[in-house]
């Protein structure tokens, strides 16, 4: 999002960017639109009521006042879940304003009653009407109510308020575009625009990572995620560790919590999140294969980053993952057994 903002400014476009969390306001053109208290309250209330997107009225009112003053020709939405904006207020405003709307979806939340992904639990309720959500306790967590049916119908109404011809949906993968075409957003045109990575940063880069971790003569398997969960395939990395001869190979996992690092099996090197893209580039470049056993994903940029650094990728055939694999040495597989076979084939090294 910030890259697009910078590109527009370079072209002389009067561009504004607003976000909800983590970063403070920079200028009148680059601002956080949500208060910490508002985000906190939205999160707490959502955990009780399962109504993500229906709080933050005060913060959203302030944002809409800014938008009224700006009078934009185009409003480009990205993720609007995350406890920072009121979707009813923003879509009613968009419906009544003259602006064109582009909406880049990064997951499936826009057309479900609760979850951002549903493939892991093999749920298809979103095709007709969500109810009795099997993922109520998953993000965005609800500890009490299940409002998935109400959310589904409210979102169906709100997200169809913008007249046809004034809104375009953008997805990073054809996989997600196909799902949109089966959802209650199907009346809107969908454009697939694949994510990219900065090739001036992500490129083969020599470093001392192997030497620092005594990996010079080993076949190194890398995994990167944050946070690491079963959905991201952490359990498959633990299963993989039982197959390996650690005198010949190693597993490196980046993005783990300190708690997760403490319980790793011997032979698995665990690292927390890197401090910079350059540090991550050094790790990508030092490893023999990047394994992405994710069970739910849209268009994972980690696959793109690894390939850009010259490291072949082995990824599960999940969501938009197959669309990210472009290098000749990379593989798309169905499960861990397929991943093991693929890694053996990549360069002929025996590692298990």
UniProtKB/TrEMBL annotation:
GO biological process, one term: lipopolysaccharide biosynthetic process
Pfam families assigned: Glyco_trans_1_4, Glyco_transf_4
Domain Glycosyltransferase subfamily 4-like N-terminal residues, every copy: 2-198
Superkingdom of the organism of origin: Bacteria
SUPFAM superfamilies referenced in this protein's UniProt entry, alphabetically: UDP-Glycosyltransferase/glycogen phosphorylase
Record-linked InterPro entries: Glyco_trans_4-like_N
Keywords: Glycosyltransferase, Transferase
Molecular-function GO terms, alphabetical: glycosyltransferase activity
Stated name of the protein: Glycosyltransferase
Species assigned in the record: Eggerthella guodeyinii
Lineage: Bacteria, Bacillati, Actinomycetota, Coriobacteriia, Eggerthellales
